């Protein structure tokens, strides 16, 4: 009887290290992917010796081979080089978008959550209006007003994320504002700005920072979508979404032109999502 009782316990205990090992492996892989892509964006010459914009005569649409790891495009340009050099455009655009959404959205959320009353009602009704507009439609509207280009596309994507940052920041500020230690700080004679700076902001912005990692992956996906539709970075810039758009006409004869840029986008987005989950788990 004692042997039967101890058997399930041994099985449960042996399963726990496997779960922890899998979690650590996923986080390490995600960080390796992001660091590699960041290094490619900063120093693309470390990864390839080919040009991203100049083609090679007689090397049009070559399949992946020893000389060209991921093949060449319709103009004889090395696809691996274009993906590597495209990392700087995709990452810089996503960084601008996330920074814009983080700064403006957090300021609006903190203003609404910390002041309350009529100010909160006005700000949150504005946020509700932004949330009622589909993200892609809002991005296209902003691009039409500002014009085409990488920076304008990044601004458009950043504006679509303002509402999400504002709602999260407002919810966290309200949660912290009604905590016991904040009430004690006010009771001890603390001023509004002193309590806000010392107690409310440090304890409410952690989840906002974790959410920004998730929005970074979403921004890359949104920028790629705009470039695919022709509203983002103009050719011959090697942006990942534009690479997919340029290769779709040859998908039946040169599948690698769309497959490998798509894999790059999916890999970076999944890595950003995994890092965001790691930050959220560490917060809990």
In short, what is this structure?
This protein is mostly helical and 284 residues long.
Features:
284 residues; 0% strand; 10 helices; disordered N terminus; 76% helix; mainly alpha
Can you walk me through this structure?
The protein is mostly helical and 284 residues long. The chain has ten helices and no strands. It is elongated. The N terminus is likely disordered.
Count of β-strands: 0
Query: What best-fitting shape do the alpha-carbon axes yield?
Result: elongated
User: Treating each run of at least 4 consecutive H or I residues as one helix, how many helices?
Assistant: 10
Beginning-to-end CA distance, first to last residue:
40 Å
Report the radius of gyration as a whole number of Å.
24 Å
Order of SSEs: HHHHHHHHHH
Tell me the structural class.
Answer: mainly alpha
Low-pLDDT parts are 1-22
Rounded average pLDDT: 83
Biggest beta sheet summary: none
Residues in helix, %: over 70%
Strand content: under 5%
